[in-house]
Amino acid sequence: MPVQPSSSSLPAEPDLYASxxxxxRAVQARDPAADEHFWYSVRTTGVYCRPSCxxxxxxxxxxxxxxxxxxxxxxxxxxxxxxxxxxxxxxQRQAQAVAVACRLIDQAEAGTTPxxxxxxxxxxxxxxxxxxxxxAHTGLTPRAYADGRRAERMRGHLSGAASVTxxxxxxxxxxSGRFYANSDAQxxxxxxxxxxxxxGERIRFAVAQSWLGPLLVAATERGxxxxxxxxxxxxxxxxxxxxxPHAELVGADADFEAxxxxxxxxxxxxxxxxxxxxxxxxxxxxxxxxxALLAVPAGATVTYSELAQxxxxxxxxxxxxxxxxxxxxxxxxxxxxxxxxxxxxSGYRWGIARKEALLARELAGDGVD
Length: 369
Hints:
Elements: H1 20-29, E1 39-42, E2 47-49, E3 63-66, H2 69-74, E4 78-79, H3 90-107, H4 116-123, H5 127-138, H6 142-160, H7 164-171, H8 176-187, H9 191-195, E5 202-210, E6 213-220, E7 223-229, H10 233-243, E8 248-250, H11 254-268, H12 284-294, E9 302-303, H13 304-310, H14 317-326, E10 338-339, H15 352-364
Parallel strand pairs: 2-4, 5-8, 9-10
Antiparallel strand pairs: 1-2, 1-3, 5-6, 6-7
């Protein structure tokens, strides 16, 4: 077995801010990347700051650099009230505030979701500021987040409650009207049917062969709800049965076979898939991610960061990756076109090898074999 090098034997990363000249350049640029690497003090004001501080620039002859906050305070300087260098970085404080707001929503009793004013007061921010930060970090407004959490509770309670009505109140719906108005979008079927494993629902399906291997296509009356890939065609059918054990699963008829043929053609040539009826459901944030994925053309790729920026949530990279992983419609919602920053393929629900093969095929512009 090869011996792994110890951490002490690995070369140290270069310190980009080792010299005073480099530190001064960072202060002039207000570079947030330099924060926590060093601090600077200003002799004429008696304060010390982060490199990214937005305060009026000081003259170079009045500035000294410190390797830690303790060194700056030991030299007699007090923390700047603007950049608050004695507290965690601003981005961390903002993320903590959003996390506290999320916990307050999660822990609220059913039907008593805290309003924006209550959340803002709890984290010490204005309502407008919290609303903006919450959306930037989660991709959702506080109300949409609360609705999503309630929908999760609805799905969970429907499986174990004695009745749909009981599940409705356990999930926090104050009226049956709002419950049923939301249930179709969140469940894809009547609540009673979902609770009973799809009982009363009719789902057509078929397994076809594609260049990626066996492929299952399933659809409700609204459109395609599942496109799954596996090496074992029987496993694909079992997965569908496990998901909806009491649904009426109907084999392909002539009309459905035509739809399946279009899906297979889309897998073989991704440029041919436009216009297929999709029955894609998820949280509001997932929907935004999936819609952005549909706009990525065959032969092109985006990073998770770029996708987050496209939906207006640049700090929600992890949530974007999670939404890609939750996509149940292979190829047609092209999450395989999302790559790492270095361009390499990352995790894929149907296997890295398939993702790499899809990207290579699209880049080469190959169509149907």
